[in-house]
């Protein structure tokens, strides 16, 4: 097996049906470096070390250093993808509401569902030799809609060649944040309107239009049985109304909010503010069984343009969609 410092790098590593890092790991397994100074680095990080490219910190290199050789230039698209991914992770609230993530390598995907009646949700005593109640799981009638989200990176090599990678990473992370917010909007729309399989969330309204009370929240919480209301997604205006409830103004709640910026709720549910929710709306859900995220591969970059033409115009995209698992595990409250 070739060592990390003599591997031949070329853009074909991006077209093997897997990530660039995975392709590198096959050629240069990380297990070979156990007990060495390189332990803890993945195959891509070892290549950065090989070409002495520092992508972060005050001493980060300039963009130009990636293009010193044809081998090091092949590392640039993966740097872009990783920076975008970091931006997505930092701005991503989806892990707080998604029950399962399914990665596919096709354009079509059909999820599964189960729609038990109230009687079927109850596990009754079964006598000897008696019929055991069934829970039917079936595939959904309609396919999950997948959306391609991304940004076009437009810059000439001459314009950014002397820019520090640490600064350039900030721009790429912002692209990742844009993608994360767009996917959050897709997720919220699926929770509210369903995924095209007649599973829109049941909706209700507060007792007095425009006024939210703690009693309204308790009534809303009580509707979820046998599911658990453990996550709220609120529009900014509804979030303000929530935080102005007297139950949120006790000393402990105020101290936690002022110290960490994290809100708490009297119902013990995770509280997320998102402009993806329309004004006057509050979405409640059981995050353990309400939403499935379907992702077609990882973040994609157009490596030909990034390597051969040294930027110019390059697309950074991610394909994902969402499926509703149990219809009544998400509900909408209109204020």
What does this entry show, briefly?
The chain is an alpha/beta fold. The protein has helices at 20-27, 43-50, 70-73, 76-91, 157-160, 165-193, 214-222, 236-243, 251-260, 303-307; strands spanning 100-104, 112-113, 138-139, 146-156, 203-205, 231-234, 270-273, 281-285, 291-296, 300-301, 311-324, 330-334.
Topology, please?
Blueprint lengths: L19 H8 L15 H8 L19 H4 L2 H16 L8 E5 L7 E2 L24 E2 L6 E11 H4 L4 H29 L9 E3 L8 H9 L8 E4 L1 H8 L7 H10 L9 E4 L7 E5 L5 E6 L3 E2 L1 H5 L3 E14 L5 E5 L1
Parallel strand pairs: 1-9, 5-12, 6-7
Antiparallel strand pairs: 2-3, 4-11, 6-8, 8-12, 9-11, 10-11
Helix pairs in contact: 4-6
Task: Name some characteristics of this structure.
alpha/beta; 5-stranded mixed β-sheet; single chain; 12 strands; 335 residues; 10 helices; hypothetical protein PF0899 fold; 30% helix
How would you describe this structure to a colleague?
The chain has 335 residues and is an alpha/beta fold. The protein folds into two domains: 4-97 and 143-189 and 299-320, no CATH class; 197-293 and 325-334, hypothetical protein PF0899 domain (hypothetical protein PF0899 fold, 2-Layer Sandwich). 30% of the residues lie in helices and 19% in strands. It is built from ten helices and twelve strands. Strands 1, 4, 9, 10 and 11 form a five-stranded mixed β-sheet that branches. A five-stranded mixed β-sheet has the order 5-12-8-6-7. The longest helix has 29 residues, at 165-193. It starts with 19 loop residues before the first helix and ends with a strand.
């Amino acid at each position: 097996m070739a060592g990390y410092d003599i591997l031949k790098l070329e853009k074909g590593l991006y077209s093997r049906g897997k990530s660039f890092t995975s392709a590198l790991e096959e050629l240069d397994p990380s297990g070979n470096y156990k007990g060495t100074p390189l332990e803890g680095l993945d195959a891509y990080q070892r290549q950065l070390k090989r070409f002495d490219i520092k992508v972060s910190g005050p001493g980060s290199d300039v963009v130009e250093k990636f293009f010193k050789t044809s081998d090091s230039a092949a590392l640039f698209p993966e740097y872009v993808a990783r920076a975008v991914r970091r931006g997505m992770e930092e701005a991503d609230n989806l892990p707080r509401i998604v029950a399962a993530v399914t990665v596919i390598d096709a354009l079509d995907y059909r999820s599964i569902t189960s729609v038990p009646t109230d009687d079927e949700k109850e596990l009754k005593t079964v006598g000897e030799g008696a019929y055991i109640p069934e829970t039917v799981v079936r595939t959904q009638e309609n396919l999950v809609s997948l959306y391609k989200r991304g940004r076009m990176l437009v810059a000439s090599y001459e314009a950014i060649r002397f820019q520090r990678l640490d600064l350039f990473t900030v721009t790429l992370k912002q692209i990742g944040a844009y993608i994360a917010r767009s996917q959050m909007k897709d997720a919220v729309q699926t929770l509210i309107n369903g995924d095209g399989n007649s599973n829109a969330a049941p909706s209700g309204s507060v007792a007095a239009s425009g006024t939210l009370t703690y009693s309204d929240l308790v009534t809303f919480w009580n509707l979820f049985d046998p599911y658990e209301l453990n996550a709220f997604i609120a529009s900014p205006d509804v979030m303000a109304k929530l935080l102005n409830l007297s139950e949120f103004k006790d000393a402990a709640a105020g101290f936690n909010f002022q110290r960490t910026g994290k809100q708490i709720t009297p119902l013990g549910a995770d509280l997320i503010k998102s402009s993806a929710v329309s004004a006057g709306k509050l979405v409640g859900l059981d995050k353990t069984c309400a939403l499935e995220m379907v992702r077609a591969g990882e973040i994609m970059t157009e490596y030909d343009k990034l390597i051969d033409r040294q930027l110019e115009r390059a697309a950074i995209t991610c394909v994902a969609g969402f499926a509703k698992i149990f219809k009544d595990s998400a509900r909408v409250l209109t204020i």
